[in-house]
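Quality-control log, excerpt.
Job 1 of 2 completed; input and output follow.
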Amino acid sequence: MHKRLFIPGPTEVSHDVLMQQAKPMIGHRMAEYTELYTGIIDKLGKYFKTDKNITVLTSSGTLWMDITARNLVGKKALSVVNGAFSKRMFQTIRDCGKEADMLSLEWGKAAKPEVILKALEQGDYDVLTLAQNETSTGVRSPADEIGKAVKKEYPDIMYVVDAVSSAGGDLLLPDEMHTDIMFFSSQKAFALPPGLSVGIVSDEAIEKARSIPGRGHYTSLPAIFDYYAKKKQNPATPNVSLMYALSYQLDRMLKETPEGRYERHLEMAKMVREWANKHFEMFPEPGYESVTVSTIRNTQGKSVAELNKALAERNMAISNGYGDLKEKTFRIAHMGELTPADIKEVLWHIEDIWEL
């Protein structure tokens, strides 16, 4: 029996979206694929209200951490770290042999423009990285305010935003955020199977990458976008079946509208926050809670592992705390295909199991 997923990815996928992957195969160098892929790029541009360069890669979102390091870091990156996934970006840049400093914040705290500007004064940085929605802590940092402030003072710094667990649920506009790269993946608020990642990339980022050696091939921004400019296709073999599903899902998302999806996600988030503050307390600092995943402090010392065993018997699953936060927190995702009725139901079951 399928367990309904209230976890921050993979998320629930509608049957009609899944069935798009059953379409007959086409060659990725055929005109039919060009039509499919250019249509996807056009829909993504409409959804995010941007004319920036867009690509869809067959990879997890994590690949964009390597892309950031290998294409943009010429001097040194400053990585804002306030959770496990923002720390992964910092570690990835180092793993790629590039220099990076960590702006370490207390987990549960959001990044603020003034703190970042002060840190940027301390070094010769050419890249700034931020997890707009830190999946491990449920913290939503004001990426638009940060981007505006940073680009005003440091216009040449490349601003890279990890939106893996928020894009498609939160209302994110890359142009207003002043991002050079905003990236995300298919299995979270986009409510698709895992396997695709999307990068929205500025002209400036692509041009800077041309001067950076050691970009690799699969991870080279010029290789990706030069090939698209010439052929309107991916330079390497894509997951064609998932592209069908993405194209179909984007039609559904555009019909709901970005604003409509945001309002639905926000309504679910508010339901969980109210419930959490009644029985426990929220982990993020007030005012900076995610709209796609709520991280809740386990103030009652309940066993989250045992809760999930009981929920599994009722065909549901939530997430334990991530890493060092395991059992200290638990996470309820409210993203993708989920509705307020779904959230009301899972909260009722948690109350029933834990006798709250």
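Job 2 of 2 completed; input and output follow.
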Amino acid sequence: MVTTERQSPVSILAGAGLSVEELYDELTGNCTKSVRLDDLLYEAAERVPGLTPTPAEIEQERTRKLSEKTGVELNQGLLTAEILGIPRTGRHLVESMLQPTALAHEHLDELRSTGSVDLGAARVTRHGRAGVLELCNPRHLNAEDSTTLAATEAAVDLVLLDPEIEVGVFRGGQVDHPRYAGQRPFGAGINLTHLYHGRIDFLFYLIRDMGYVNKLYRGLAAGSNHAATEKLWIAGVEKFAIGGACQLLHVMDHVIAVKGVRLYLPARKEGIIPGASNLRLWRSVGERAARQAILSGREWVAGDPDAELICDEIVADGQMDEAIEARITALTSSGLINASANRAAMRVGQEPIELFREYMATYAREQAYCHLSPALVRNLEEHWNADRRSL
């Protein structure tokens, strides 16, 4: 991995006679136009050559293993951190990432007319007044990677946009792995094999947490053709919730887990920051337990007393469908008129959007260095045997 010093985005912009704020205003019409993060950074690359990598440069990076990458993605993280660090531009960027994606709009009529949409890596099915979202990466035990991200975000959008859906359900799709054939692992986290082989871009981390994960937590921001909306979410956790899948539990309103399911954040062994867990996990389990999980690899097992702060309901193996159905009924039978109001009120004290903005500014910068660190490669080889796994 190339580790040569790179000129910072602030210095490059200064050479072009621009500040970070001036560039952002130019690309967004003074914060009047919503531009998604990836589009924004590519437009910045065109406006100021050398500031951030172009789409062609990123495409070339994808042909390299993680250990062979040139480091061009670093400035994507550093520039994003600068934008998020400015309250006005940072808030606008956060809210821009809370807009529904074009892929979701393409399939909304299909969902409303047929009650289901298959996006390949994610499926949405209307089930009574619930929208069931299944993350589908069967070969990799429902791990997340560049093949799942867009579909998952669009699926979250569809659940939020469909007026006939009152509650969202997030669960893993059935897998065909020999050890778990026909079962529904909630998720194996980031696809470490793809990461090691350079198939996961740095922007995956930011788009995921500022996109669909934040939408689960905050709903959609109001746009020109839709109102702001948020809904309650149920998680149906089977087999395991590892890494990024465990991070999702922090933003769910009701977590149903099969007894014995393992819940953990192996980010210490991977060498990356576990999304927004550093911001959110301690609110559930306390600061000391959160430190133990993030820094020392502490795990929880559904059904054990110490896991009660993560899971709301424990069921026996084979009873998940029945439990989800009962929870949907319980949440919708008396109406949900005050649900979004209560969620929003809780966030005022827990995680206002300004706090999230500040966290993501730090996350964008530090995760960029983690992603491009030789230590990450070593960790993947030592703890994951990634050098001996094939794509």
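Post-run check on job 2. The mean pLDDT is 94.
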